[in-house]
Specification:
This protein is an alpha+beta fold and 320 residues long. The chain has four domains: 60 residues, Winged helix-like DNA-binding domain superfamily/Winged helix DNA-binding domain (Arc Repressor Mutant, subunit A); 50 residues, no CATH class; 92 residues, SH3 type barrels (Roll), CATH 2.30.30; 82 residues, Alpha-Beta Plaits (2-Layer Sandwich). The protein has twelve helices and eleven strands. The strands form three sheets. A five-stranded antiparallel β-sheet has the order 6-5-4-3-7. A four-stranded antiparallel β-sheet has the order 9-10-8-11. Strands 1-2 form a two-stranded antiparallel ribbon. Helix 1 crosses helix 3, helix 4 packs parallel to helix 7 and helix 11 crosses helix 12.
Length: 320
Amino acid sequence: MRADRLVSIVLILEKRGKRTCAALAEELEVSRRTILRDIEALSYAGIPVIAEGGRGGGLSLDGAYRSGLSGLGEGELRALLLGADASLAEDLGLGEQLRLARLKLEASGPRRFEPALETLQRRIYVDSRWWWREKEADAFIPLLQEAVLRDEIVEGEYERYDGSSSAGRLEPYGLVAKSGLWYLVGRREGEYRCYRVSRFSELRFADERFSREAGFDLRVWWPSNAERFAAEFSAYGFTLALPEGSVPFLRRIAPGRVEVLGPDARQAGWVEAEVGLDSSLYAELVVLGLGAECRILKPRSLAAAVVARSRAALEAHSTK
């Protein structure tokens, strides 16, 4: 809604100071022309928006202006209370602070909202954790949090999805929690990369600080690069023929990474499907799980690996 966007523009400028038109357009996911129309509407409404052209220019509010828009409504209180993830706060050592913050947030809301907020919290609970999780999976979170906040270089060993390992130094720029998993955004050899924290086998401070790139903003960088990381997690592609009824099972194993190409001309009731997974090992396990309910069309190297693994399993488990 436009009214919500106008309020957002005022709050962004009030909180963060000068912003370019392009930056506002990107953050609010609209066109630059839309932002210009919104600024014009705000000016007509008496909001003192100052526009400066040229290098270093942008949009800002008059320094003496205070909007009075920071009061929270019922919907905003609901969103904040549901969005505060207790398990992730515990990872960062902020569990108790979050509990107190929630109490303060509830106390600051108008009393007329209290029954609705109480009902909401009794009936909706957000648990970001997967059912099975190694307790030590994110043991390096405290170290990385300190490194991110202090711009400290870290060094260690990292296991890739294909099972290989690499050792080296990197500059930790930020931590991201995605679906209950922690990822480190770091710069190595001048390039930003994403690392799953649980895949570090060793990690330590290098007793050296780095100079953070001034324009880096994790809130902007992560959404812009998330699709690229998702593609990396599906980098190993292969094609199967399988019964049409087995496709839902395959999609449960690899949600969002299965594309049905069409009917399989060699067998009635079968289809061809293209799948993308993290590694060839993961692909082997999926094919072995499907058993005779699939045929590997390509690559042939995957078929050879599955055959070799099956023979080894037969030899290891045969009862003579």
